[in-house]
Amino acid sequence: MKHLLEIENLMKSFGGFLATDGVSLAVEQGSLCSLIGPNGAGKTTIFNQVTGYLVPDSGRITFKGEEITGLHPYQISRKGITRAFQVINIFPRLAVLESVQLAILAKRGDTLKFFAGARKMVREEAMSVLETVGLADKAAYRAKELSHGEQRTLEMALALAGNPELLLLDEPMAGMSPFERGKATELIQKIHEVRGLTVLFCEHDMDVVFGISERVTVLHQGRVIAEGKPEDIKKNEEVNLVYLGQGSGI
Amino acid sequence: MTREGSRGLWRSGWLWAALTLVVLVIYPQLVSRYYIVLSTEVVILALLATSYNLIFGYAGLVSFGHAAFFGLGAYGMGLLTKNYGFPMLGGLVAAPLVAAAFAFVIGWFCMRTIRLYFSLLSLAFAQLLYVIVYQWTSFTGGSDGLQGVPRPELLSSHSSYYYFALGATVLCMLVMWFIVNSPFGWSLRAIRENTQRSQFLGINDRFYKIIAFTIAGAFAGVAGGLYSQFQKWADPELLFWTTSANPVLMSILGGMFSFVGPSVGAVVFVALREIIKVRTDYWPLVLGAVLLTLVLTVPDGIVGFLVGKARPLLLGKKAETPGS
Amino acid sequence: MGGGTDAISVITWDIGTIILLILAGLTRAAILFVVASGLTLVFGVLRVINMAHGSLYMIGAFVAASVIQKVAGSGGYWLALVAAPLAVAMIGAIIELGVLRRIYQAEHVVQLLATYALILIFDDVVKFIWGAEYKSVSVPATFAGALSIGGRPFPVYNLFVTVWAITLAIGLWMLIYRTGLGRLIRAAVDDAETLEALGVNIPLIFSAVFVIGAFLAGLGGVLVAPLGSVGLGMDVTILIEAFVVAVIGGLGSFPGALLGAVIIGLMFSFGITVAPDMAMAFIFLAMVIVLIIRPWGLFGEPER
């Protein structure tokens, strides 16, 4: 098994619009990769297909050597792929700790238990996740009571819960202030190193992308136009053209 | 006991539950038959409302056909014990099974739709069952209802039936309490809060909703079975859609986001009804006015309102608020 | 013909019977259309299910009954035909201002409960004003008597009701598609926010739509008054039937309400004759099937 995640020739169209046009992508275990591209390039569509929210028209997606194309989101999640969303996608009335506990239980497939008290289950593990992301002191608060930045962190915590092997981050820096971006970048690096997670994220913020990615894939109009190490991508002519208006040289 | 410890004790839900139980057991000895009969009704309705809240408050499914399972339980119990000679306990086990079977099938279909259409479909199914029960005179007694549902000798007095209903209800509530605080119960709340995210966490939401619907239907069936024994008859109106509105009302009245809310709602509902009915014929008017005011001003119900006030105080101590 | 309990054997099936059944079904469809169109209009524009729609219908019937009682002869009926819907429309305006305005943004369950509360309130108000007995309203003299169709009598009044409903359908269609108000309403369905930004008085349009819906409910009440008995409980039965019609046709769609009404009306009149015990069951089964297979009905669109 060479790569943790392999996408082969993925195709997806909506009506007449071709959102994914023969995309192939491979993510190595333990790496920190990013997917970039201008708005509308199709990054979120790829994520949606990998996580089962959309079914590709054709092509294969393989995870740990096993094909996962077209499975349900809950099935894919059980296999070890989790996702943090671009828009905050949490459980407003659940407490922070409860949300993380539930995420761990769900990941383990332990949620079909009717007579075990959930409050005591996986409590330490959930607290340790909260400590990693820095939300431990807000454990009893309801998610809707948190500040915006804290909710984004909770978003991350939910994705971390249950020890995923592949973490997909969909524009994790969106709408953040530079200070928050710094903290978020630190957090991503921390969880990548400390937990040995493979991370694939898509992002607009070029500083972040080139700062921490090991490999960068560039998407444009549903197609991969470049792929490689950050330094090489920076120098790539076509990529620079695509990002015209962002200044010469990214 | 330190001051800290004693305050902690008072905050324990179990203590309050025990106290309530003691009151419920003792007080029939002190009051007249009218109140005992009334309390029996309250207990059964509390069971019905709590069963409804499993899908309404906890899973966020607005069903308008819950009365169907109540009625099916009532008729199931009545028919089995009267026409087929089932022993009472057998009936009380079989009736919820019947209701659960219907709930499973109906739930399976209903979970294919969302929101408004879900509500309408649950309503349509309930009406369909109502019409069938109403028209199938040879089997169900039709519009006259099922008369003469038998009650065992042992439970023939008002207070003995009260204690029986109370016992059955407490048992059911305990089971529901465990379910609600289990990983399954937590999953329901997550589904309510954010269905898509719960899917991404690994929860097969459609399957869970069907299970919840079935369980809720089963407990509604128990309530129905108790009710038909209590009244000694079953009536098609039990399945009519306006009966479905009552558990909704009680859950909202008492607070849909807590476990005891629907029971509180049941108490308030019946108490209000009796107080008003003494003074005037126009109880629906008062009910409507109360409901309207409630809906427009306090969406979280009575318990929600009180808990909302108390939460800031509780938060300082890593709240042990049950369920919610 | 052989007696017995089998309804089918009692009826002689010939063209006359069939035409009669169709006409009877269309009469029922007419009433259903008038009521369901109001319900579906309110949902289509305001996105609110008004459970109290049946109550408005009932109030229309009772007002009509009173007017006809007080004013002798056919004049009473014609007066009622105008006065009752107007009275109900006014009540509708009050409801819209007092209750609905607060819950437009609320979830469906809140709207359902609030309007259900109105059912409870109106039920008792009607009981208070008119008492609990059934009222019998006689057919106006102008339409008394029956036509002979296929050798059997068919009441003239029923024909009038059917014709009225068709006229109404045409009138409503013209209102929606040929007038400025109609254009505004259609635009409001598509994008109320933009319209408001353009300076259109959306709250006023919403009120107007609801008042029209109430008017239609009241009109249904007047039309139905001489057809059967007027009494408490007619609000609940018509509501459920109007629901079935609106859902099958598609919530928010006029042609849907028309088609749905015709389908249900015919199902009922033929059903009652062929299999009286199961007629209503089939109708609800139809609603169940539509909601499962195509929830937005024959003419509706999936909810955004």
CATH class of the largest domain in chain A, anyone? Alpha Beta
Largest interface: B-C, 38 and 39 residues
Report the end-to-end length of chain C measured between terminal Cα atoms. Answer: 56 Å
Helix count, DSSP H or I runs of 4 or more residues of chain A = 9
Residue windows where pLDDT falls under 50 for at least 5 positions of chain C: 1-9
Helix amount of chain C, in percent? over 70%
Mean pLDDT of chain C: 86
CATH class of chain C: Mainly Alpha
Radius of gyration of chain A: 18 Å
Shape of chain C: globular
The low-confidence parts of chain A are 245-250
Could you give a short account of the major beta sheet of chain C?
2 strands, antiparallel
Topology:
The complex is a heterotrimer of chains A (about 250), B (about 325) and C (about 300).
Chain A: E1 5-14, E2 17-27, E3 32-36, H1 43-50, E4 58-63, E5 66-67, H2 73-79, E6 81-84, H3 96-108, H4 123-133, H5 148-160, E7 166-170, H6 178-195, E8 198-202, H7 206-212, E9 215-220, E10 223-228, H8 230-235, H9 237-242
Parallel strand pairs in A: 3-8, 3-9, 6-7, 7-8
Antiparallel strand pairs in A: 1-2, 1-4, 4-5, 9-10
Chain B: H1 3-11, H2 13-26, H3 33-58, H4 67-82, H5 88-110, H6 115-135, H7 137-140, E1 146-147, H8 158-180, H9 183-193, H10 195-201, H11 205-231, E2 233-234, H12 241-254, H13 261-279, H14 283-297, H15 301-315
Antiparallel strand pairs in B: 1-2
Helix pairs in contact in B: 3-8, 3-11, 3-12, 3-13, 4-5, 4-11, 5-11, 8-11, 9-10, 9-11, 12-13, 12-15
Chain C: H1 7-10, H2 15-46, H3 53-70, H4 73-103, H5 108-130, E1 146-149, E2 152-155, H6 156-178, H7 180-197, H8 202-224, H9 234-249, H10 254-274, H11 279-293
Antiparallel strand pairs in C: 1-2
What does this entry look like structurally?
The complex is a heterotrimer of chains A (250), B (324) and C (304). With 250 residues, chain A is of the alpha/beta class. Chain A has two domains: 1-80 and 164-250, Rossmann fold; 90-163, no CATH class. Chain A has nine helices and ten strands. Chain A has helices at residues 43-50, 73-79, 96-108, 123-133, 148-160, 178-195, 206-212, 230-235, 237-242, and strands spanning 5-14, 17-27, 32-36, 58-63, 66-67, 81-84, 166-170, 198-202, 215-220, 223-228. In chain A, the strands form two sheets. Chain A has a six-stranded mixed β-sheet with strand order 6-7-8-3-9-10, sandwiched between helices. Chain A has a four-stranded antiparallel β-sheet with strand order 2-1-4-5, covered by helices on one side. In chain A, strand 9 (215-220) and strand 10 (223-228) form a beta hairpin. In chain A, helix 3 (96-108) packs across helix 4 and helix 4 packs across helix 5 (148-160). Chain A is globular and about 55 Å long. Chain B has 324 residues and is mainly α. Chain B has a domain at 34-240. Chain B has a two-stranded antiparallel sheet with strand order 1-2. Chain B is globular, with a radius of gyration of 20 Å. The two termini of chain B are 29 Å apart. In chain B, 54% of the residues are buried. Mean pLDDT of chain B is 85; it is low at 1-5 and 315-324. Chain C has 304 residues and is mostly helical. Chain C has one domain (14-293): ABC transporter involved in vitamin B12 uptake, BtuC (Orthogonal Bundle). Helices cover 74% and strands 3% of the residues of chain C. Chain C is built from eleven helices and two strands. Chain C has a two-stranded antiparallel ribbon. In chain C, helix 2 runs parallel beside helix 6 (156-178). The B-C interface holds B 62, 64, 109, 112-113, 115-117, 119-121, 123-125, 127-128, 131-132, 135-136, 241-242, 245, 248-249, 252, 281-282, 284-285, 287-289, 291-292, 295-296, 299 and C 49, 99, 102-103, 108-110, 112-114, 116-121, 123-125, 127-128, 236, 240, 243-244, 247, 277-278, 280-281, 284-285, 287-288, 291-292, 295-296, 303.
